[in-house]
Fold:
Amino acid sequence: MAQTSKIAILVPGKLHPHAVERIDGRFELLTIERADPALVTEEMAAKVRGMAAMTVVNASFIDALPNLEIIANFGVGYDAVDAAHAGRRDIMVTNTPDVLTEEVADTAVGLLLNTVREFPRAEAWLREGRWPREGAYRSSRGSLRGRTVGIFGMGRIGRAIAHRLSAFGLPIAYHNRRQLDDVPYAYHDTLVALAAAVDTLICVAPGGAETHKAVNADVLKALGENGVFVNIGRGSTVDEAALITALKEGTIFAAGLDVFENEPHVPEALTALENASLLPHVGSASIVTRQAMADLVVDNLVSWFTRNQAITPVPETGHVKREGVSSSVE
Structure:
């Protein structure tokens, strides 16, 4: 087996402890407080060949590490990493797809149910002792019955959500950059058209310039006064101010959010709304799934330095090859 103990892997900021433990046992682990070029010492710049991160990794930080070969990102979303710049520098970037698909899809369905049926508020009613004092909790104004679901982002997670909601007996439609040949659901070539055709919109789209504030006032207006919006993808895909206005004014019925524009800071205007069900970005946050994600981060590093290939490269770096090395790493 190739020896990797002398290969320096940098962890900027926080990372899942299981990943840190595995890196420390297999490589030379280096850590810094945050991904700041000013914190990179000359020794680090010379030694670091790999990085494991769950934070912003921008071009200037990448350039501060001239011998960097791979950035292993914790999470399926990797918009925090300048993957395009890494690709131009022939640096591999990986993410952690598949291992969190089912967990996030489960969360999306749970969040949708919480939003329309008000389960968290009903539980609070019970815990506050109001049931015996004031009687049964009110009947929820919302229901899944009779709804039509639109999914923005029919990737792995989008498909898993569609599969679950189809079993609930709900019709499914979707919007993607392109129509897919292998799904049976109705396709709409614009997000506004999808919103107009459904009354329940679930956003699973990745972050980035292409989707920045894609769910805007026009989309929410098209969704309509019976509309429910759920975001399990990235907070950057939504115009948060427009969403708050739509919820306040009754432009849409309700929203369920697991992600926000400026996490962990959530606007007080959102937390004050009774027609918003809010979670603190817990889509994949079960012990078993987060550990599987941590394993995939490290497995990508190990594979890169022992087999000269990544397991889950992102599209921007799919062309990157590890050349000029022997099959055995010193």
